[in-house]
Every structure is written in C-alpha cells, then in structure tokens.
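Hypothesis: this fold can be encoded by more than one sequence.
Test: take the structure tokens below, design a sequence, compare later.
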C-alpha cells in the first residue's frame, strides 16, 4: 500500500490491513513472521509532512541467544510517526540535517510504502537479545549440550575455567624443556 501525498492532501486515509508472512521485507534473517501482521492506522498530511499513527500486532519466531532454541514472541506496538519530505530539506538551507537524529524520518518523491514503515517498526520493537526464559542455562561451552534439557559431565571433571589457560601452560612446560 502506497501512501501518496497528493491523495493525503485531499483526505485522511484509514488503514485496516493484514500482511501475510513473507509479504514484508524485514531485511533481517534473525527472525520470521509466523502470523499475519494486523495493522490499524490513520495517515494524514500535516504541513506537507506525512503523519501515520496506529497499532499493529503479529507473532514472530526468533532464536534464543543462549540455547539457540526457537522462541515465539508476541509483538504489539502503538506508533505515531512523522515523515518529512526529503525535497524540502535540500531546498531549505537553514535546516541542517543531523544524521544522528533517528527521530526524524523522511520520504522521497510522492510518498512512502506502508510495508516499509511496518518492517522498520517491527525491527525497532525487538530486543537486542532474545532469551527463551530468564533462567535459560544455555549451551555447555565444552560439549554443546543444551543445559536446559540435559546435564553433561563436563562440569564434574572441568576445573575452574579461569584457571584452564594456566593448567595448559603447566602441561606444556615439560615438553618445551
Ligand atoms: Zn534459551
Ligand atoms: Zn558439556
């Protein structure tokens, strides 16, 4: 769905739409959409800027950062965004474009695609690290076993891991003599 400034100049647009999994490009391989993304929003033109506000909901499949198991996350988000026309910035010398200012978004040409807006909002709503549960024990660094599911025997015969490099040094010592 394309939000066209010329159309928005004449009326507000009310949006009620479902995006099936696979129809939004998230530019990320870190997660998968597993349910339709349901969006309700309103788009309007204010002083030449596109304002789009509303709410969306979907479910995503991600990977636990500790144990690499699949995690399903419910994503619901309210948003209220302003997009300024790129052209107005180029013309107006007095506005200095600060690239670090992430609150300012722009559209080029006649408008913007709702799908791009939503894909970005989904990315922004995700935590940096997803963990399946707060007490996830992760994988054993020695044998790779998922410690949530089974115990491994590494711990019983491993010495303090901080001392391991020292122990190795000691082992090598006679060989180097
Ligand atoms: Zn986990
Ligand atoms: Zn182990």
């Amino acid at each position: 769905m394309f939000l066209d400034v010329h159309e928005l100049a004449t009326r507000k647009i009310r949006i009620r739409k479902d995006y099936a999994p696979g129809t939004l490009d998230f530019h990320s391989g870190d997660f998968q959409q597993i349910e339709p993304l349901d969006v309700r929003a309103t788009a309007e033109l204010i002083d030449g800027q596109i304002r789009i506000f509303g709410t969306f909901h979907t479910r995503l499949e991600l990977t636990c950062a500790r144990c690499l198991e699949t995690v399903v996350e419910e994503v619901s988000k309210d948003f209220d965004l302003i997009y300024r026309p790129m052209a107005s910035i180029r013309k107006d010398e007095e506005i200095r474009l600060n690239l670090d200012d992430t609150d300012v978004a722009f559209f080029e040409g006649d408008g913007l695609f709702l799908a791009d807006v939503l894909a970005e909002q989904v990315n922004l709503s995700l935590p940096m690290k997803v963990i399946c549960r707060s007490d996830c024990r992760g994988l054993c660094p020695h044998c790779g076993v998922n410690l949530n599911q089974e115990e491994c025997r590494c711990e019983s015969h491993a010495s303090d891991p901080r001392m391991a490099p020292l122990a190795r040094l000691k082992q090598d010592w006679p060989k180097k003599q």
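Residues 140, 142-143, 145, 152, 154 surround zinc ion (ligand 2) (CB under 6 Å). The mean pLDDT is 85.
Hypothesis status: open.
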